[in-house]
Task: structure prediction
Amino acid sequence: MARYIPPEQNKAGQIFDIAVVVVAIFVALWLPLKLGLAGAAKSIDPLDAKTWDALGQNATMASIWEKLGYTPEMAHDIIQNRFHYIIDWPTLVIMAVVLIAYFVFLFRASDREYREVINEKFDDK
Amino acid sequence: MTAAVETAQTTTIHGDRVSLLRVLGPAHVWALGVGIVLVGEFTGWNFSADKGGALAALIVCWIVGLLYTSVAMIDSEVTSTVAAAGGQYAQAKHIVGPLMAFNVALFLVFAYTMLEVSDAILLGDTIVAKAGVEGLTHNSFIAATIVVLAWLNYRGVLMTLNVNFVITAIAYVSIVILFFSVSPWTQGAVLKLNELVTPGNALPYGWIGVIAAFQFGIWYYLGIEGTTQAAEEVRSPARSLPYGTMAGMITLLIAAAMTWYVCASLMPWEYLGITYYPLWDAGKLTGSPLLENLLFIATLLAALASANGCINDAARAWFSLGRDRYLPSWFSAVHPKYRTPYRSILFLLPIALAFAFIADLNQAITFSILSGVLQYTFMSINIMMFRKKWPLGSIRRGYTHPFHPLPAIVLFCLCMVTFFAIFLGFGSQLIAMTVFYFLISLWFHFYRYKFVRRGDQFSMPWPKPQGY
Result:
């Protein structure tokens, strides 16, 4: 197999590629934050009676909260801030499809590139 | 001469061939791995109690420990054979192909850079909380941490990892001191596990909460695989890398078990699940000023050691991408005096700073975990391909892990469970990150790959893989 000679990349091209990668990194990591897609899906289940008993805390737990500087009113939003694990099937399916498609593309495209590498490496010998 | 030494890569500077220095031993490998990970005991693991309760945090500590034992076993075999800078990146390049290698390097860079960000946020918040001064923010502490550690990494790997060894050891010893100071063999005096973890609150969300807790259970050990990043700077990779990695894993399993036991016995799960500094809080709750101050200092040291190791690892993965022209070759420069990948270190510095200021702690941790789990999924498939392409006996392996393919299957299954766990509460973030990796892969495959020298991607002195 003929040895592949890659084109030389000029400085402008290198700078452009660096910019593409930087923008991609910021979009990937910053956009979910900006759009509110990042972070835990939790919500507060409010209680009318804000006492240690109503919050489900026994005497030992209550004494520790107080040692940490919390009153029942202050602890209410922590204790009642809960995850609600309801499986959203359409989102789960989308997630599975995106993940599977990504890995399938990754392995198939990698294999095409790998065959070129192996052919060039071992056909030289 | 080992295969790794034969294939050690060099970079040309002013006409001279300059390579990374081989100066590290097993203790440095241990310090790099444990140094990165130990911060997970000081913050992060406890968010698994938030997702599933205190008992769920313990269950995932053990099960995720199994996941990481599989990672360490698999990694030790592949790394002791493919010992080159970039770790899993170099493995992917030789076993799966360039596009996979490009992705794996990005997983590493994101996992470590976001872990570094988490460390800096933790350090800043801990100092602010301790100072208790009105109006004091964490920003200056975050900036100082990231800049000073980047400078340390710029100056040289040996000094960096010597510092890591000392501060990691101090942080680890502090957990042991805390554990034995609270009379762990007696309940009721200091520890009150029976009253804090009751049948009514042990699993507040049931078993779905246990699965959800896998997400932050990863944080107990995330980064132990970073030991492989030092492959080109270790004097004897085939011996030091498996030894340092396995010793690190044992160290962490012990630390994780002690940490859970003390913390779950000292604070209610609702508080444990949201605090940024569970071990420091545990120190406070013992009522001993000595333990409180020790754990405060240890929290800072653990964050420093982790951030330090992360800068080291992320920069080497980025450096490897430049050296192979997967990214502009400008990144592949080695400092002529300090022999470090200084341009990669400097390039990643502002990225870490930017995210330290715009993300909060659990978001940064989730970014890091996501990239980590994608990488572990790759590793489970990678080892199967490695054994198939080069069966035992066909090439010299520094270490051969037992029970193959059981560890790979266990690892793959636990990764699938963890993806589902991330979906429970952080699903949109997972989809956004995967779409990013998909798009950047298209960019690489259809555009950037044309700059890559094909045959040069395979540098190990191995026979042709079976099936090709």
User: Anything to note?
Assistant: The mean pLDDT of chain A is 89. Chain A touches chain B through 74 residues (CB under 8 Å).
